Amino acid sequence: MHPETLVRDHTIYACVMGSRAFGLATEGSDTDRRGVFLAPTPLFWRFEKPPTHVEGPAEEQFSWELERFCELALRANPNILECLHSPHVEHVDDTGRELLALRGAFLSRRAHETFARYALGQRRKLEAHVRLHGAPRWKHAMHLLRLLISSGDLLRTGALTIDVGDRRESLLAVKRGEVPWPDVESWMNRLAGEADEAARRSPLPEEPDRRRVEAFLVRVRRSSALQPDAYEEVVQGVVDGGGRG
Question: What is the three-class DSSP state of 13?
Fold first, then answer.
Protein backbone atom coordinates (compact mmCIF):
# COMPACT_ATOMS: atom_id res chain seq x y z
CA MET A 1 0.00 0.00 0.00
CA HIS A 2 1.44 3.37 -1.03
CA PRO A 3 2.19 5.67 1.94
CA GLU A 4 0.03 8.44 0.50
CA THR A 5 -2.88 5.99 0.37
CA LEU A 6 -2.53 5.47 4.10
CA VAL A 7 -2.86 9.21 4.66
CA ARG A 8 -5.68 9.63 2.16
CA ASP A 9 -7.82 6.65 3.19
CA HIS A 10 -6.87 5.86 6.78
CA THR A 11 -6.40 9.20 8.56
CA ILE A 12 -8.24 9.25 11.88
CA TYR A 13 -7.26 12.75 12.98
CA ALA A 14 -5.95 15.79 11.13
CA CYS A 15 -5.35 19.32 12.35
CA VAL A 16 -3.62 22.59 11.58
CA MET A 17 -0.52 23.39 13.62
CA GLY A 18 2.16 26.08 13.62
CA SER A 19 1.42 29.77 13.89
CA ARG A 20 -2.23 29.33 12.95
CA ALA A 21 -2.82 26.99 15.88
CA PHE A 22 -0.76 29.13 18.27
CA GLY A 23 -2.69 32.31 17.51
CA LEU A 24 0.42 33.88 15.98
CA ALA A 25 -0.46 33.79 12.28
CA THR A 26 0.18 36.87 10.20
CA GLU A 27 -0.33 37.60 6.54
CA GLY A 28 1.65 35.05 4.56
CA SER A 29 1.92 32.46 7.35
CA ASP A 30 2.16 28.86 6.14
CA THR A 31 -0.54 26.34 6.94
CA ASP A 32 1.14 23.40 8.66
CA ARG A 33 -0.99 20.27 8.67
CA ARG A 34 -0.43 17.30 10.97
CA GLY A 35 -2.31 14.04 11.21
CA VAL A 36 -2.55 10.50 12.52
CA PHE A 37 -3.37 7.50 10.34
CA LEU A 38 -4.26 3.96 11.35
CA ALA A 39 -2.47 1.42 9.17
CA PRO A 40 -4.72 -1.64 8.62
CA THR A 41 -3.64 -4.39 10.97
CA PRO A 42 -2.93 -6.98 8.21
CA LEU A 43 -0.17 -4.71 6.93
CA PHE A 44 1.83 -5.67 10.01
CA TRP A 45 1.64 -9.35 9.04
CA ARG A 46 3.96 -8.75 6.09
CA PHE A 47 7.75 -8.69 6.16
CA GLU A 48 7.70 -5.05 5.14
CA LYS A 49 5.86 -3.08 7.79
CA PRO A 50 3.86 0.09 7.18
CA PRO A 51 5.71 3.40 7.68
CA THR A 52 5.79 5.04 11.09
CA HIS A 53 5.24 8.42 9.44
CA VAL A 54 4.48 9.92 6.06
CA GLU A 55 5.49 13.31 4.70
CA GLY A 56 2.90 14.80 2.34
CA PRO A 57 1.12 14.39 0.03
CA ALA A 58 0.32 18.10 0.42
CA GLU A 59 2.95 20.73 1.16
CA GLU A 60 3.63 21.30 4.87
CA GLN A 61 1.79 18.05 5.70
CA PHE A 62 3.14 15.35 8.02
CA SER A 63 1.37 12.33 9.53
CA TRP A 64 2.24 9.62 12.04
CA GLU A 65 0.97 6.06 12.27
CA LEU A 66 -1.14 5.74 15.41
CA GLU A 67 1.25 3.52 17.37
CA ARG A 68 4.24 5.77 16.73
CA PHE A 69 2.16 8.81 17.61
CA CYS A 70 1.13 7.25 20.93
CA GLU A 71 4.71 6.25 21.73
CA LEU A 72 5.93 9.82 21.24
CA ALA A 73 3.01 11.28 23.17
CA LEU A 74 3.73 8.98 26.13
CA ARG A 75 7.29 10.33 26.09
CA ALA A 76 5.82 13.86 26.34
CA ASN A 77 7.22 14.93 22.97
CA PRO A 78 6.22 18.62 22.80
CA ASN A 79 5.25 18.62 19.12
CA ILE A 80 3.05 15.55 19.54
CA LEU A 81 1.30 16.75 22.68
CA GLU A 82 0.58 20.09 21.05
CA CYS A 83 -0.83 18.31 18.01
CA LEU A 84 -3.44 16.67 20.26
CA HIS A 85 -4.52 20.09 21.51
CA SER A 86 -4.82 22.03 18.26
CA PRO A 87 -7.86 24.33 18.19
CA HIS A 88 -8.13 23.77 14.42
CA VAL A 89 -9.27 20.19 13.74
CA GLU A 90 -9.82 19.47 10.05
CA HIS A 91 -10.84 15.81 10.27
CA VAL A 92 -11.67 13.34 13.01
CA ASP A 93 -13.46 9.98 12.87
CA ASP A 94 -14.69 7.77 15.71
CA THR A 95 -11.19 6.39 16.39
CA GLY A 96 -9.79 9.90 16.28
CA ARG A 97 -12.34 11.01 18.84
CA GLU A 98 -11.23 8.16 21.09
CA LEU A 99 -7.65 9.37 20.71
CA LEU A 100 -8.62 12.91 21.63
CA ALA A 101 -10.52 11.61 24.65
CA LEU A 102 -7.20 10.13 25.82
CA ARG A 103 -5.37 13.48 25.82
CA GLY A 104 -5.18 13.55 29.59
CA ALA A 105 -3.67 10.05 29.70
CA PHE A 106 -0.56 11.30 27.87
CA LEU A 107 0.10 14.21 30.21
CA SER A 108 2.55 13.83 33.07
CA ARG A 109 5.39 15.61 34.82
CA ARG A 110 7.66 14.16 32.16
CA ALA A 111 6.63 17.20 30.15
CA HIS A 112 8.86 19.36 32.32
CA GLU A 113 11.96 17.50 31.23
CA THR A 114 11.05 17.16 27.56
CA PHE A 115 9.85 20.73 27.09
CA ALA A 116 12.84 22.10 29.01
CA ARG A 117 15.31 19.96 27.05
CA TYR A 118 13.81 21.04 23.75
CA ALA A 119 13.78 24.68 24.85
CA LEU A 120 17.43 24.49 25.93
CA GLY A 121 18.44 23.11 22.53
CA GLN A 122 16.59 25.89 20.75
CA ARG A 123 18.09 28.54 23.00
CA ARG A 124 21.62 27.34 22.32
CA LYS A 125 20.95 27.69 18.61
CA LEU A 126 19.66 31.23 19.15
CA GLU A 127 22.72 32.18 21.20
CA ALA A 128 25.05 30.75 18.57
CA HIS A 129 23.32 32.85 15.93
CA VAL A 130 23.71 35.94 18.11
CA ARG A 131 27.44 35.31 18.47
CA LEU A 132 27.81 34.94 14.71
CA HIS A 133 25.43 37.62 13.48
CA GLY A 134 24.81 39.96 16.40
CA ALA A 135 21.11 39.12 16.62
CA PRO A 136 18.96 36.01 16.94
CA ARG A 137 16.49 34.62 14.46
CA TRP A 138 13.61 36.59 15.89
CA LYS A 139 10.90 34.23 14.68
CA HIS A 140 12.63 31.36 16.44
CA ALA A 141 12.97 33.46 19.59
CA MET A 142 9.23 34.13 19.52
CA HIS A 143 8.40 30.45 19.21
CA LEU A 144 10.79 29.54 22.02
CA LEU A 145 9.06 32.02 24.30
CA ARG A 146 5.70 30.57 23.27
CA LEU A 147 6.91 27.07 24.15
CA LEU A 148 8.16 28.19 27.55
CA ILE A 149 4.82 29.90 28.25
CA SER A 150 2.92 26.76 27.24
CA SER A 151 5.17 24.56 29.36
CA GLY A 152 4.70 26.69 32.45
CA ASP A 153 0.93 26.82 32.02
CA LEU A 154 0.77 23.04 31.57
CA LEU A 155 2.79 22.31 34.70
CA ARG A 156 0.90 24.84 36.77
CA THR A 157 -2.66 23.95 35.68
CA GLY A 158 -2.39 20.38 34.39
CA ALA A 159 -3.93 21.46 31.07
CA LEU A 160 -2.17 22.18 27.78
CA THR A 161 -3.37 25.27 25.94
CA ILE A 162 -1.41 26.17 22.84
CA ASP A 163 -3.17 29.37 21.71
CA VAL A 164 -1.19 32.28 23.16
CA GLY A 165 -4.30 34.40 23.72
CA ASP A 166 -3.57 37.89 25.03
CA ARG A 167 0.19 37.34 24.77
CA ARG A 168 -0.04 37.52 20.97
CA GLU A 169 1.09 41.15 20.53
CA SER A 170 4.01 40.84 22.92
CA LEU A 171 5.25 37.76 21.10
CA LEU A 172 4.78 39.28 17.66
CA ALA A 173 6.82 42.27 18.81
CA VAL A 174 9.67 39.82 19.46
CA LYS A 175 9.24 38.33 16.00
CA ARG A 176 9.52 41.82 14.48
CA GLY A 177 12.78 42.42 16.36
CA GLU A 178 11.27 45.24 18.42
CA VAL A 179 12.36 43.78 21.78
CA PRO A 180 16.08 43.99 22.65
CA TRP A 181 17.76 40.61 22.89
CA PRO A 182 18.79 41.11 26.58
CA ASP A 183 15.11 41.68 27.41
CA VAL A 184 14.15 38.54 25.52
CA GLU A 185 16.81 36.60 27.42
CA SER A 186 15.45 37.89 30.72
CA TRP A 187 11.95 36.86 29.70
CA MET A 188 13.19 33.37 28.80
CA ASN A 189 15.02 33.06 32.13
CA ARG A 190 11.93 34.11 34.06
CA LEU A 191 9.66 31.67 32.18
CA ALA A 192 12.13 28.80 32.67
CA GLY A 193 12.32 29.53 36.40
CA GLU A 194 8.53 29.66 36.64
CA ALA A 195 8.28 26.29 34.90
CA ASP A 196 10.80 24.77 37.33
CA GLU A 197 8.77 26.06 40.26
CA ALA A 198 5.48 24.87 38.74
CA ALA A 199 6.92 21.39 38.21
CA ARG A 200 7.53 20.97 41.93
CA ARG A 201 3.84 21.52 42.70
CA SER A 202 2.25 20.35 39.48
CA PRO A 203 -1.13 18.58 39.59
CA LEU A 204 0.11 16.32 36.79
CA PRO A 205 0.88 12.67 37.64
CA GLU A 206 4.47 11.50 37.71
CA GLU A 207 3.91 9.16 34.76
CA PRO A 208 1.42 8.98 31.87
CA ASP A 209 -1.34 6.37 31.86
CA ARG A 210 0.45 3.93 29.57
CA ARG A 211 -1.89 1.04 30.34
CA ARG A 212 -4.96 3.00 29.26
CA VAL A 213 -3.30 4.08 26.02
CA GLU A 214 -2.13 0.54 25.26
CA ALA A 215 -5.62 -0.85 25.84
CA PHE A 216 -6.94 1.64 23.29
CA LEU A 217 -4.29 0.70 20.76
CA VAL A 218 -4.91 -3.06 21.15
CA ARG A 219 -8.66 -2.56 20.79
CA VAL A 220 -8.19 -0.50 17.64
CA ARG A 221 -5.75 -3.01 16.10
CA ARG A 222 -8.14 -5.88 16.80
CA SER A 223 -11.07 -4.02 15.29
CA SER A 224 -9.03 -3.25 12.17
CA ALA A 225 -8.05 -6.91 11.77
CA LEU A 226 -11.70 -7.95 11.86
CA GLN A 227 -12.78 -5.62 9.08
CA PRO A 228 -14.29 -7.75 6.25
CA ASP A 229 -12.05 -6.39 3.47
CA ALA A 230 -8.89 -5.78 5.50
CA TYR A 231 -6.91 -8.82 4.34
CA GLU A 232 -8.06 -8.55 0.71
CA GLU A 233 -6.91 -4.93 0.64
CA VAL A 234 -3.43 -5.92 1.75
CA VAL A 235 -3.19 -8.79 -0.71
CA GLN A 236 -4.22 -6.51 -3.54
CA GLY A 237 -1.59 -4.00 -2.43
CA VAL A 238 1.10 -6.68 -2.63
CA VAL A 239 -0.03 -7.68 -6.11
CA ASP A 240 -0.24 -4.10 -7.37
CA GLY A 241 2.98 -2.97 -5.70
CA GLY A 242 5.11 -5.99 -6.34
CA GLY A 243 5.42 -6.65 -2.62
CA ARG A 244 6.31 -3.07 -1.69
CA GLY A 245 4.27 -1.02 0.79
Answer: strand
Give the residues of the chain that fall short of pLDDT 50: 238-239, 242-245
Domain-by-domain residue ranges, the chain? 3-107+209-241, 110-200
Strands of the 11-17 sheet, one edge to the other: 53-55, 61-65, 32-37, 11-17, 89-92
Strand runs (DSSP E) across the chain, as ranges? 11-17, 32-37, 53-55, 61-65, 89-92
In whole angstroms, give the CA distance from residue 95 to residue 10.
11
Q: Let me know if 24 is exposed, middle or buried by CB neighbors in 10 A (0-12, 13-18, 19+).
A: buried
Q: What is the pLDDT of residue 239?
A: 45
CA 108, CA 214: separation in Å to the nearest integer?
16
For the entire predicted model, the pTM comes to 0.89
| Of 6, 38, 5, residue with least CA distance to 220 | 38
For residue 156, the SS3 value is: helix
The residues facing 89 across adjacent strands are 15
pLDDT at 226: 87
Instruction: Let me know: does 136 contact 128? Beta carbons within 8 Å.
Output: no
Dist. CA 118–CA 144, nearest whole Å = 9
CATH number of 3-107+209-241: 3.30.460
CB atoms within 10 A of CB 34: 24
Give the whole-angstrom CA distance, residue 90 versus residue 166: 25
pLDDT in tens, 62-76: 999 999 999 999 999
Give the whole-angstrom CA distance, residue 61 versus residue 63.
Answer: 7
Contact 25, 149 (CB under 8 A): no
